[in-house]
């Protein structure tokens, strides 16, 4: 992983992005259960703090800043050193943007995740004001990831469909212009509510959660629940589960 990304996250714009992504990821991982949780990339940034899974590890490539956190694993994301179906939760902050083969990384994630396991990803949105600015010729680049290397949510959804992932939820955020000072970012803070309402897909970054589905898998509940289902009157209509409105967010 280019060290420039870790350094950029300490700038005013980077702290703006980190604060938003921390809130979104905390909400997405707080109810994930199991035994093993892995964060791939940026090991100095703890995006597993809101999760209660007992075993946690932070995997990163040899070129990443190591930091001093316990539970570090040095590996390449295209070749994860975990058994098949052994991980319950994987968090990847901007991981697909710096790896050599992002689709292969997702294939590895699908391999090591347990059925019904969860993956949470964050990334830059190339179809945002920030992406537009970085695409204009003659301007100095301010983002640590070039626009061609950014993975759009639409592209990510296509990869989900090719694998065994089902989109669970997603959010766009950081609608303020790409400013280099905290003062100017503060002046544009009203854009957060305006952008989320009028231009929901135009946020500079996104956070997406997906669940690994296995075709034909049937979760078996306790015996008393099965017997209770048998007593349901034939023809009764079961309540419809709440579903995420994908048209509003990601």
Automatic annotation (TrEMBL):
InterPro entries (alphabetical): Methyltransf_11, SAM-dependent_MTases_sf
Any one biological process term the GO annotation gives: methylation
Any GO MF annotation of the entry: methyltransferase activity
Domain of life assignment: Bacteria
Pfam families, alphabetized: Methyltransf_11
Keywords carried by this UniProt record: Methyltransferase, Transferase
Annotated SUPFAM superfamilies: S-adenosyl-L-methionine-dependent methyltransferases
Residue ranges occupied by any Methyltransferase type domain in the UniProt entry: 73-121
Protein name, per record: Methyltransferase domain-containing protein
Biological source species: Castellaniella daejeonensis
